[in-house]
Amino acid sequence: DAGVIQSPRHEVTEMGQEVTLRCKPISGHDYLFWYRQTMMRGLELLIYFNNNVPIDDSGMPEDRFSAKMPNASFSTLKIQPSEPRDSAVYFCASSPGEGREAEAFFGQGTRLTVV
Amino acid sequence: RKEVEQDPGPFNVPEGATVAFNCTYSNSASQSFFWYRQDCRKEPKLLMSVYSSGNEDGRFTAQLNRASQYISLLIRDSKLSDSATYLCVVRLEDTGRRALTFGSGTRLQVQP
After folding, report:
1. B33 CA to centre of own chain
2. I need a labelling partner for B105 at 20 to 30 A (CA). Which of A25, B3, B33, B72 fits?
3. Strand partners for A68
4. Distances in whole angstroms, Cα of residue B83 to Cα of each of B17, B40, B112
5. B47-85, pLDDT tens digit by residue?
């Protein structure tokens, strides 16, 4: 298995532009998570899905952020309009549904810079 | 108060040393516990799960104290390749809260 695949790996955009981050989870995993990592705040959960349904989006910073999971093999995180404070590494992770000890597997992340 | 608190370090130790990291969590309903490792500019990866009875994986030993809400990781005979950030992680298992909550990480630098 190729693991969790994220694209793009790097994104540089101007303030005000729309940014779309993409994620392909590991096949068969029921859970998909979006995290954001910064030096100041560490790893923060933004939103997660179970069987394509959003379960907890309380970490989404504001209405500029939205996430979708139209099917079991694809998810997007969109920021519109982007701001410099959105600059961070965005990780997608997936996890199998069963088992208390089910591990979360992370993608390589998207490094976003908003200038 | 943060849900998971760790000493950020850095811990600078010589090769062969034994080093211990500690972590506390605030939610007593937390049911699963892990240590993840994150190398510079890479994604976090599971190092080991932490069980109530304590568990060992080679040079790594993890302990959990539910009464004190405290987790530890001990690394024996440190190697240069152990240099990384170690993330303490907890998970609630109740309905609607299955995501992992991460500490900010403790940075370890093993020196020759």
Report:
1. 9
2. A25
3. A76
4. 12, 9, 11
5. 999 988 889 999 999 999 999 999 999 999 999 999 999
